[in-house]
Amino acid sequence: MTQDLVKYEEVAEILKALAHPIRLCIVNGILGSGECNVTHMQGCLDVPQSTISQHLQKLRTAGIVESKRNGLEVYYTIKNEKVAKLIDEILM
Fold it and tell me: How far lies 35's CA from each of 13, 14, 50, in Å?
């Protein structure tokens, strides 16, 4: 039973991280383009870069997205395939 509880806690943390409209939009946008940088996200979402960065930090902490640097730009991709499938199901 303890192992099941740990799994439920992990899933709950992912769902908590996704439970915000901006974070859902960020994840869906990354899924649509394969990868995305903050500048592009800012143009699509019309919110300050600092707001997007805060949301991305929550998504990184939850293991949903990962980042890679290309020169001065940081690009984000979806790290968790289960999240990709979940978002595809609930938003399509």
Answer: 23, 20, 19
DSSP 19-84: -SHHHHHHHHHHHHHS-EEHHHHHHHH-S-HHHHHHHHHHHHHTTSEEEEEETTEEEEEE--HHHH
The β-bridge relationship of strands 36-37 and 73-78 is: antiparallel
The string of pLDDT tens digits covering residues 26-79 is 999 999 999 999 988 988 888 999 999 999 999 999 999 999 999 999 999 999
Tokens in use for 81? 């395939």
For the cut 70, the answer to whether the pLDDT of residue 1 exceeds it is: no
C-alpha 32: how far from chain center: 12
Q: What does the CA dihedral 78, 60, 54, 30 come to, rounded to 10 degrees?
A: 0
Taking the chain, what is the end-to-end CA distance rounded to the nearest angstrom?
34
